[in-house]
Amino acid sequence: MSRRNYTTELGCIADADLSDLGAGKEGWLVNNPNILVSLDTHSLALANRSLILILNWSQSINGRPDPGSNRTVKILPELSPIDSEYVSAVEWLVFDDDIRVLAVGTSCGYLMIFSIHGRLIHRQIVSPGKILKLRVRGIKQDLTQDTSSEEVCVVMPGVVARFEGTDIKDLLHRWFRDTQSQFWDQGFNDMTLEGSRQTAASLPYQIWNVSKYGSCSDTAITGVMPPPLMEIQSGQRYYCAVTVGDDAVISAFRLSVDKNRSIVGAILSKVVPATFSTIASFTKLIWRSDQNNTKKPEPRSQPFAQASPLTCLKDYPRKGEKLTLSPSGSLAAITDSLGRILLLDTKALVVVRLWKGYREASCLFVEMLARKDKSASHPAFTEHSKSDYSLCLAIHAPRKGIVEVWQMRTGPRILTIPCPKGSKILQPTYRFTSATASSLLYVPLEVFFLNGDSGQISVLNRSLH
């Protein structure tokens, strides 16, 4: 009986020079907590505290990786040595019209966007503090979802900010138009390197303080939720946010886009700045302050909008560590410090499933052709629809050296495969769709494997039968 292969090799980054990141030592990818990884369908971003490398790789040819497609771009972000600023998060931003950029978060709360050629497109402050994660997701409007939204969430200790995907796309279009460059063209000439400049405008966003139950290690906005009871119905939109942390394993908040200021507060917000501005002007006239002072004003983050606590789960000494959302946002897989994995229904805010014995685990939702009758009824060349796939949860248990796939919500374990030591499971970032994009071809969620020691990149096969 021939041995079954549950993964397919796609490429290899072994030929790339990764010595600046510590490559060459066994386990360098997983043992160094400062190594950050973000995967796109054809690119890989690797970063440490001060350096970012972009590796372009293609699909394998005749089962062998194409070494001619590997190109490495090195980015050295401008970081503040006074504040000991460092790179703390990276994530790809991919749009349907072939725009691909890299979003970078820093320990001082700055969000930066770079082109695939390493040019700084945008930089702005979100909030003072370390950016823990950049979460990109979108919800399509269908029979189960009343509205559609695409967003980039910035996760910080006790703080979460939300950027609209359309605002980021408009900013990128303006920058590409102003520089008269098409950075998504593979044949781009580097002649315009010195002529490109970053955008001056700031991206609009909303920001909330979600530290009611203590500092959080991860946060996710799960989607739109109904307004509070007894509130007059209006066009105001509310979001639900789920956080995990040391003090509360799980907590949930209702996020309001409106700052909910009173009339007095609104008046003070206009009068007080004007009063201080007038006093400052008179002070300059009296004391004849130095007119040659060219020091730039310190960048400021915007005030917090209202975040109302809904519930929390405290179970000392258990601590929440990481959170992963399903595509619709209705389920969240949460890992904790005691080796447990909790499956949370984010609509009802109830834990519906629990796994034990998975210390240091990582989870990703994946869509598989899990049912034999479905996979057998389709020819190999026929494209599958969304209804053909089953939502599953892939659990990487590095201490066991395996990856398990469990069917949601209460289904059985349908697959267990070995995972080499020194590997990580990854998932390509969400792809922002345009209004003219075709919705006929459905692309399911997939799980990729990156073996740091061998450099091999592979994907979990969709069919299990």
Describe this structure as you would to a colleague:
The chain has 465 residues and is mostly beta strands. Helices cover 11% and strands 38% of the residues. It has four helices and 29 strands. The chain has helices at residues 28-31, 165-179, 263-287, 372-377, and strands at residues 7-12, 36-39, 43-47, 52-56, 71-75, 87-95, 100-106, 110-115, 120-125, 133-139, 149-156, 159-164, 206-209, 216-225, 238-245, 250-256, 307-313, 320-325, 331-336, 341-345, 350-355, 362-368, 390-397, 402-407, 413-418, 423-426, 431-432, 448-451, 456-460. Strands 9-8-7-6-27 form a five-stranded mixed sheet, with helices on one face. The chain has a four-stranded antiparallel sheet with strand order 1-29-28-26, with no helix packed on it. The chain has a four-stranded antiparallel sheet with strand order 2-3-4-5, with no helix packed on it. Strand 2 (36-39) and strand 3 (43-47) form a beta hairpin. It starts with 6 loop residues before the first strand and ends in a 5-residue tail after the last strand.
Short description:
By secondary structure, this protein is mainly beta.
